[in-house]
From TrEMBL:
Protein name: protein xylosyltransferase
Xylosyltransferase C-terminal domain span: 105-290
Pathway: Glycan metabolism; heparan sulfate biosynthesis; Glycan metabolism; chondroitin sulfate biosynthesis
Sequence segments annotated as region (Disordered): 442-462
GO molecular function terms attached to this record: metal ion binding; protein xylosyltransferase activity
Gene designation per UniProt: XYLT2_1
Amino acid sequence: MSKDPLVTSLKHTYSYSLLPAESFFHTVLRNGPYCETFVRTNLRLTNWKRKLGCRCQYKHIVDWCGCSPNDFKPEDMARIKSQSTNYFARKFEAIVNQEVINQLDSWLYDPYPADMQGLNYYWESIYHHEDSVSKTSDVFRTFYQSFVSIGVKSLKTSPAQGGESQACRTGTVGDIKEVTFLSQHDQFTGVLAVYDIEYPTNSGSKQVVTLESWLAPLSHEELLNLNVSNGPQRLVGLEVGTIWDQKERVFRNLARLMGPWDDPVLVHRWVHGKEFDVKIMWVDPINVVTGIYEMKVVTNWVVSFHKPTFKKPMRPGKWTIKMIFTHKGEDMVIGQTKFLVIPMSYSKGQPVSAQDAVAANSGPPGGIYNTNDFLIEFDREANNTEALAKKAAENSRKAGPELHAWIDNVTDYFWTVESSCTISGKIPGCEHISLCESTIWSSRSPDPKSEIGKVKPNGRLR
């Protein structure tokens, strides 16, 4: 950290400035001893897409709005190639689009081999047990521990190489050690969870095996609009998550892990066509209709979103969203999807107490989600409301192993274990499980495209 008076004084000044990172380094460079190294107009290739980049998505935080450039994508490569003498281009973001980075790399340094391992994979570390700086939310921690539990259970029925079922020995399961998000061909394909299992040996000592399990999300989207009029046929997708980035049209909570105090967002996707009206109905795990919202689907919509405000905490479990079109006085569901609000097993980074578990997992006070509601309305199509309500009341009082069993049960409905591999050690009776370093999806597998060596004499990296 520099102690130069210019740097320290500017840091003090910029601590009172709005968005200081936008100009801090330029100001230091142009006013310091290296001012002659400044390259004018080096930031000349910026990916402006005004209709997206100027959306005011932080109006609830600030009292002003500005524009920002968008991430480059493959369709923008023509602009990049048409420019010359560019030292910097903004912005590239692998979690949004890895393909354009590969294309740019190939253009600059010649193409990679088509069969190169990991070329279309991207791994992003989200959690590490040795990281004492980053804070992990209680929601994420609850999910992570459930992922470990589901991963271990899958080992007991893991198929052997001959297709036969081979039961693996059980051991003492440790806490989560690492979590990595996995994308393939710019599609989020799951969460990689690293954890330890401890086994006793014949000699009386203990053997620790470190595993990585790949958990993939299960979609519960249903589009029911194939044989309806031209307007409703425009619907092509429904997704639910949190932290919706309007400018890049992605959920920044990539795995869409949600808890009782989160604010879910419904993203709906369309093709252009006839304008029409729909209703959006949110239904909680015991069939309580938490809200019905009318919406006009305009002619040129491609992607839009709906974000209701509910009283917290939301009731944990399986939620349903229905998109309803009214035709000749009758309501028709043209699309629906389900999402998980996970029951909480952690509070402030520690295992939740029985008292805190009840507070988090019982739903909103009085069962009312909206401030203007006086009565609880149930989904008229549901026929098991009473049994679900009774079960939800029982679940809300659970703690310890019973709480974890409930969490694993609902998580298992939305996530599945694709595969597992070993980082170190071997599971007794389960030697068929492959090594992670030779497993293409693993965070331990080689990623040649991301390796950076020394700069060559010609100034290139490769």
